């Protein structure tokens, strides 16, 4: 049965559905190699510190998919049907495409819940989606980035301005924009990831009236190869050495509450800042912010219209 609706594959990294799923999730990230007991214990402890055994993180992505469907229905009622595909958890990217085929979808657009393009992140998601779509006879177009979409910038500016009000505005505030680190080798192929992150950060800082800011990295993988730096923990030390007492974290590379934000920033970085005698606050994440949902919807529609 043919279906004239346009499928929209909404992709993200994925997170376990419960504490019981952490080992399988970690094994998938490690390409089928089970983690050592101490590695599993460390990751489990991080999740426990964030969620306390109750696991709401997966719901963030589910709500974003629902929010995008609502935003698309407002633009073009009945034209689009959203499906979810995750990199490291079920439903996997291929599962989402297979469900489209099962529903008779013939044309689709893929979009990642990450505004900035890298061949190692968004490029990899889109490659998997397109390969499965080709196998199943679906014409798939892919959104590559939306890092300067006016509504994305506006949503981030609103959060920065709001968060700055938590500080003593008479004293210096260092604003630290951050994103997930990637291996340094991405620079060898002129990957746009770094430049797009800087463009977003510059646009947000300018609109928010922030002049005292830096870009830093976080959440680097633990592999033998070098990753982009400096890490935010190093940057916090540097900022403290310059006698700052106030830091605002703006994780511009992330769009929802998950481990890299709730643990790496809210627990680890905040504790490091406290030890250095600094007040540390973070902007609220985009999650299902209407401007972010409209950013995604308009990016999908534009790719659908111009392919």
Explain this structure:
The chain is of the alpha/beta class and 307 residues long. The strands form two sheets. It has a four-stranded parallel β-sheet, sandwiched between helices. Helix 3 (57-75) packs across helix 11 and helix 6 (150-164) crosses helix 7. The longest helix is centred in the N-terminal third of the chain and has 19 residues, at 57-75. Helix 5 links the parallel strand 3 (105-112) and strand 4. Helix content is 46%, strand content 17%. The chain is globular. The protein has eleven helices and eight strands.
Essential attributes:
Coproporphyrin III ferrochelatase, alpha/beta, 2 domains, 8 strands, Rossmann fold, heme biosynthesis, EC 4.99.1.9, 4-stranded parallel sheet, 307 residues, lyase, porphyrin biosynthesis
